[in-house]
Amino acid sequence: MTPRKGEAKQPAAKPNISGEDLLSYYRDMLLIRRFEEKAGQLYGMGLIGGFCHLYIGQEAVVVGLEAAAEEGDKRITSYRDHGHMLACGMDAKGVMAELTGRIGGYSKGKGGSMHMFSKEKHFYGGHGIVGAQVPLGAGLAFADKYLENGRVTFAYFGDGAANQGQIYETFNMAALWKLPVIFVIENNQYAMGTAQKRSTSTPDLYTRGEAFGIPGEVVDGMDVLAVKDAGERAVAHCRAGEGPYILEVKTYRYRGHSMSDPAKYRTREEVQKMREERDAIEHVRDLLLTGKHATEDDLKSIDREIKAIVNESAEFAKESPEPPLEELWTDIYAESVKG
Ligand SMILES: Cc1ncc(C[n+]2csc(CCOP(=O)(O)OP(=O)(O)O)c2C)c(N)n1
Ligand SMILES: [Mg+2]
């Protein structure tokens, strides 16, 4: 096992991918972006309460990794979770209605933005405590290893979370027991208002598993094809029984940390530069057009399709009733736990 793979091993994105696949990544990323923009609007209108962390800018991370996943694989993440849910196929209506706290939401309106789950899509949350999902992700992988079902778990966390102690306790156990878990560090360069260079002694987060013998690689998170390629290598490693793998995916969030972010820690120019020069959706749009996989008109009709899905989800989220008081007493204890 090579304990470390640097940037040199990162292959350039290969545009020799089918037009059909490219279109599906375009669609999936656009759905996340438009959904998040709509969520931002509903928040502004007072229809969404509590915490709300948007994923705009980071879309290629989840879409690329979902392209490398198979049915039955699991995913778990932090509070910045709407993109992960949409990318794994959860219904936009159920996600939006959870944001507005309505009965039609994935947690019957009782969880909100940070606490949604889907057993059917193997999505295990939605966690508000920074880093808490990482040991839970290793636990999911432990169960899969025990059941010998060949599944892998994607445990996502941020650059800020990567400095927590529980991450390294998890790395140790995951490596010791060769758990099929991919630790995905979504390095969007900030933890709330703290830039990575102000909080982190060594910048290369993908090397953080070295002490435990966990291989890692750094990936361009604004290039969905590069993310998919790296995801496939990580998945192959896990499925072969080689144990955990680390992907440090370099990305960028365009919006504030949450809806209440004064954004004093970076310049508008910095954000604008990323949007203009590195946007992941624009990148795929260019590949589609230059590769003649789609025309401007095709893309316009996809835009309309996505807008309709998002508008429908917002209507549903406004019309679905609030949960009745009796719901306060449900979903508290597990009634039965099956293997
Ligand atoms: C244990 C804990 N400490 C502090 C917080 C407050 N907090 C919420 S998000 C966050 C920053 C995390 O940054 P990062 O891991 O980079 O994830 P990102 O928000 O960039 O996706 C902090 C400190 C928390 N929720 N939980
Ligand atoms: Mg971060």
TrEMBL record:
GO terms for molecular function: pyruvate dehydrogenase (acetyl-transferring) activity. It holds the Pfam family E1_dh. This is Pyruvate dehydrogenase E1 component subunit alpha. The pyruvate dehydrogenase complex catalyzes the overall conversion of pyruvate to acetyl-CoA and CO(2). It contains multiple copies of three enzymatic components: pyruvate dehydrogenase (E1), dihydrolipoamide acetyltransferase (E2) and lipoamide dehydrogenase (E3). Residues 28-325 form the Dehydrogenase E1 component domain. NCBIfam families: PDH_E1_alph_y. Keywords: Oxidoreductase, Pyruvate, Thiamine pyrophosphate. It catalyses: N(6)-[(R)-lipoyl]-L-lysyl-[protein] + pyruvate + H(+) = N(6)-[(R)-S(8)-acetyldihydrolipoyl]-L-lysyl-[protein] + CO2. Heterodimer of an alpha and a beta chain. SUPFAM superfamilies: Thiamin diphosphate-binding fold (THDP-binding) (SSF52518). Its cofactor is thiamine diphosphate. Its EC number is 1.2.4.1. The gene is pdhA. It comes from the Bacteria.
